Here is the input.
Amino acid sequence: MRRREGKRRKYLTLVPDGMADYPLDRLGGKTPLMVADTPNMDLLTKKGRCGLAKTVPDGMEPGSDIANFSIMGYDSSYFTGRGAFEAASMGVKLGEGDVAFRCNLVTEEDGILKDYSADHITSEEGRYLIEEVDKKIGRRYGVEFFPGVSYRHLMVIRGCFNEMDMDIECTPPHNIVGERLEENLPRGDLKDLMKNLIIGSKDLLDDNPINVKRRNEGKNPGNMIWPWGWGKKPNIPTYQELYEIEGSVITAVDLIKGIGICAGLDVIEVPGATGYTDTNFSGKAKYALKSLEDKEFVFLHVEATDEMGHEGDLDGKINAIERFDKEVVGSILDGLEDFSLLLLPDHPTPVELRRHTSDPVPFLLYRDKNYSPDDVGEFNEESVKKGYFGTLDATMLVSILFGSRKLR
Ligand SMILES: [Zn+2]
Here is the structure.
C-alpha cells in the first residue's frame, strides 16, 4: 500500500565517495575535511545528529561496491560481487551460471601497471579499444566485452558457474599502481584464461593508432585490460518492497547505478556528470531536486573526492570537498524546505595512501526542523566521535533516515 500523499516526505542520501581521510602533518594534524571550508555540511551537523558508520564488513576489501551497498541498507549476504551490479547498470543481462567482471583499461609500461585509469581515457576512445578486444580476443575465447564510461568496462564469461563454486582472486588495479603485473595476475579458477586475455590485450592494443596518438599527446595509453571485481547475478529486495518508497539514483559510476537498479531505484542521467573533478556538481543537485518533485528518495553520489584521494592530490581533494559542500549540499539546502538527509562517504581514500581503507566513516543525519541535535558543530572525522549515534553498522542508516523498519 502506498503512503498517503499528505504524509509524503523527501529523503536524500548524499555520498561524497572517499571523502574521509587521516590527519596529515602538512595540515598541522588535521584532515582534508577539517581544513576544507564546508559551511553547509556544518550547518546540517548543527541541526542533526552524527556518528561513525561501519560501511565495510569485517574481512571484506574496502571497495566502493560493498561500501555503497551497505549505505543503501543491504547486508553483505546479498552481495554477489561488483561486476554483477555494473552489468545491471549497463543493461547486460546475466544468466544463472554467468560471471561478470569489472574491466579497466589500464596503462602498462615495462611490465609495470602504470595507471589504473589510462589517464581517464575518453569514453569514445575507451569504447573503440574495448570493441577491438571483444572482436579480436573475446571471440577467440568465448568471452564478451561491453564498453562503459571512460576506463570502466565490463567483461562477461557465460555459463561457467554451473556446479562448482568459483574461486577467482583478482586484484583491483588501483591497489597495484607502480607494481609488477607478473606478481598480480589473477589466481584461482580461470587463471590461465584471465592471463591470456590480459596479455593478449596488451599485444593487441599497445600500438593501436588511438594509443600512438595518446602517447604523442603526452597521455597514458589504454594498452591493456585488467578484469577484477567479479560477480554473479544478484537478487535483492527493492526499496518498494522494503520501505514502500520510490526513489532515484544519481551517479556517474556504473557500479552505483547498478546497485541502485537492483534496489528498484530509477537512474537519472545528469548532463556533464563525469565521475571526476570536472563533474557537474550543481547539475546533480538540480536533478535531485527535480526528482524529489515526484519521488520520495534520491541517492546522490559524487566520485570526484575519491579520485583526488587516489591521485594523492591534497589540494584537489580539499577543492572537491568544498565544491561538493557548496554546489551539492548548498543547492539542496537552498532548494528544499522540509526533508530528511543522510550524508556520509562510502569509505576513506586517504591522500597519503592513495587507496581505500576500512575505517568507519563520519556520517550526519538530519531528520527535519524539529529534530533535536547532538552537540557536534562541525562535520569531520574527529568531531563526530562525540555524536549521538556512536559507531553504527551502515546498513542501519536507511531505516533511521526513513524512520521505518524494513518490511522484510
Ligand atoms: Zn576509489
Q: What stands out?
A: The chain has 13 helices and 15 strands.
